[in-house]
Amino acid sequence: MANNILDIIKGLNQAAANGYDSYEPDVEIGLKREKGHPILDSRVIDGFRVRFSADKMIITYQSEMRLEELHPRNRFENEIEEKFADIVKFLKKEYKNITKESCTLKPDYEADVLVQTTSRLHTWVQATKQYSITGAGDDVIPNRRISIRDQDKTLEKQFKNFLDLSSKKKPSNDKAGKNPETPGD
């Protein structure tokens, strides 16, 4: 059982690497680039990458689309959410093949989608979605929230300890004379 977040992140990172376009030609993730013949058909540029922040995994999906594919807004948003669902399904399957264990990826919020036009016909889409990582049904990182009051007490205690370290004695190697402009010397 992988209790260490680093082990889970390594497994998910390797699973994402297995989804790279040139890794294996017959890998099916659910992306547009998998449709058609790789040499005879024009290839659609799309792909994904992952990055990690503590117990969170952030998936970024990039694709180019024709402008007419964007217009029914709900259909476009649902299509992006389906792409994320396909990517997560692939990552979980690859993670299980690599580590022989399971992990759960729970979405934290809806996908954040940025659409930019490159011409009158084509657009560039970049979407991100954040997931919480849990392993084998247990939370990977315990919830260590500190209330503001406790945080203030901790900070105050650390500050007092720092001030107690100071001394008003001159160091033994200080050969400077008294400075008349400095009070208390």
Descriptive notes:
With 185 residues, the protein is an alpha+beta fold. The protein has one domain (5-139). Helices cover 31% and strands 25% of the residues. The protein contains 3 helices and 6 strands. The chain has helices spanning 5-18, 73-99, 148-164, and strands spanning 46-53, 56-66, 103-107, 112-117, 122-135, 138-139. Strands 1, 2, 3, 4, 5 and 6 form a 6-stranded antiparallel beta sheet that branches. Strand 4 and strand 5 form a beta hairpin. Helix 1 crosses helix 2. The longest helix is centred in the middle third of the chain and has 27 residues, at 73-99. The chain starts with a helix and ends in a 21-residue tail after the last helix. The model is unreliable at 136-141 (pLDDT under 50).
Output the keywords.
185 residues, 6-stranded antiparallel sheet, 3 helices, alpha+beta, elongated
Weakly predicted, low-confidence segments: 136-141
Amount of helix = 25-40%
Run of helices and strands: HEEHEEEEH
Mean pLDDT: 76
Domains counted in the coordinates: how many?
A: 1
Distance between the termini: 63 Å
Largest sheet: 6 strands, antiparallel
Principal-axes geometry comes out as elongated
Number of helices: 3
Structural class comes to alpha+beta
Beta strands, count: 6
Radius of gyration: 27 Å
% residues in beta strands: 15-25%
